[in-house]
Predict the 3D structure of the following.
Amino acid sequence: MTNSPIEKYLEDIYKRFIKNNDGQLADYIPELATVDPDRFGLVLATADGQVYKYGDTSDEFTIQSISKPFTYGLAISDNGFDYVDRKIDVEASGDAYNEISLDADTHRPKNAMINAGAITSTSLIRAASSEERYERIRDFFSKFAARDLSLDQAVYNSELETGHRNRAIAWMLKNFDIIEGNPEEVIRSYFEQCSTLVSTEDLAIMGATLANNGVNPISGEEILDSSIVERILSVMMTAGMYDGAGDWMTSVGIPAKSGVGGGILGVLPGQLAIAVFSPLLDRHGSSARGVAAFETISSDLNLHIM
Ligand code: DON
């Protein structure tokens, strides 16, 4: 049942793009290859808290890399800009998400969206134990979603067993004194962070909170200072889509972040957020159907920021 012109529009997009079966399920985390590839959810949430949806919008999936901008924000909130900037640069890397790209002189990861930078953000969350670290991250994400979020234990276990490349990145960051503490504990928190379950609707509300300068329009809670929100959206704009960031900014033109769970979140500052979920991925690790739908939505609704 649709009851608004925007939901009718999202239904049209759903019907048009459900036929697009490009891409493949993520299989480097074995548990991610078990999801239903046909699922498709579309949600538009405005900065003042109106939510429009169509499709599988309450089905849960793991947030994966869409967690990275939020953890980066929490790291800055905990430590301040100067401290975090000494550990993580803000340059577009043009590299794949799992590339081991560190600056040749400072050894800083290029940005907080690639895994090396994201693992560093996770290491910077202040906590007395790794349990407390993930609990703080889960609580922070839950405030953004205005709902209590939980962990997908099966995806977490799967990533813990197979995530050797991320483990290697964490140990290399330790070698260069970029991360403090025990790399194995940091990587567990990073895998937990990525394995947090969200729905398409949760993602859109998390994005609407960024669009609304860090105040959740559903709960009314002020979660993050607007200067940190500005930083998050700047890095999403230049690096959120990794080695596809230039193509994305040219064709869609909205700061965004994708995850290998199949979600894509786009945020138009001061206005709205759009979340799309569909698990078949393109070669950059972003939802193929999601990218195609975003291109059309941005063009139809004239959302490109230029
Ligand atoms: O670090 C990883 O491999 C995953 N937990 C997250 C990667 C991811 O979502 C990349 N984005 N498209």
